[in-house]
Design brief:
InterPro entries: GH, GH10, GH10_dom. It catalyses: Endohydrolysis of (1->4)-beta-D-xylosidic linkages in xylans. This protein is mostly helical and about 140 residues long. The protein has one domain: Glycosidases (TIM Barrel), CATH 3.20.20.80. The chain has seven helices and three strands. The longest helix is centred in the N-terminal third of the chain and has 18 residues.
């Protein structure tokens, strides 16, 4: 899904470039920089780790990244107070190496809550959520928002 979105966006950008008569930037990132615009994409950690064309396109075309799933609760905290930062850290490190911002999202979302929270009482769920949010915000304190 993320790859199709990137391909469609690049195709649309190519049409815009050919339709203009004045010299235009050669990449989405360059065009965004000319207008002081943030242009980003959601990235999946699998292709980011293993597909050269994906990595190259993401680095070249975008100045902002958001982890597709690597920073969501079910991935980051698969069991109570046991955190897996590897996917999110990979996105943050890739962005840092390529001069890109990182935007986080969905600290808590009903669609990707870990299975262990499903049977928590309201009295137990609120502290679990607070703990999760606090730990994620502390770990990713350099993420833009």
């Amino acid at each position: 899904m993320a790859r199709l979105g990137i391909v469609a966006l690049l195709a649309a950008f190519g049409l815009i470039l050919t339709a203009t008569s004045s010299p235009a930037a050669s990449t989405l990132r360059a065009a965004a920089a000319e207008k002081n615009i943030v242009i980003g994409t959601a990235v999946a950690t699998g292709p980011l780790a293993g597909e050269t064309a994906y990595r190259t396109t993401v680095a070249r075309e975008f100045n902002s990244l958001t982890a597709e799933n690597a920073m969501k609760w079910d991935t980051v905290e698969p069991s109570p107070n046991s955190f897996n930062w590897s996917g999110g850290d990979a996105v943050v490190n890739f962005a840092a190496a390529n001069g890109q911002r990182v935007y986080g999202h969905t600290l808590v979302w009903h669609s990707q809550a870990p299975s262990w929270v499903q049977n928590l009482s309201a009295a137990d769920l609120l502290p679990a959520m607070r703990n999760h949010i606090t730990k994620v915000m502390q770990h990713y304190s350099t993420v833009d928002s």
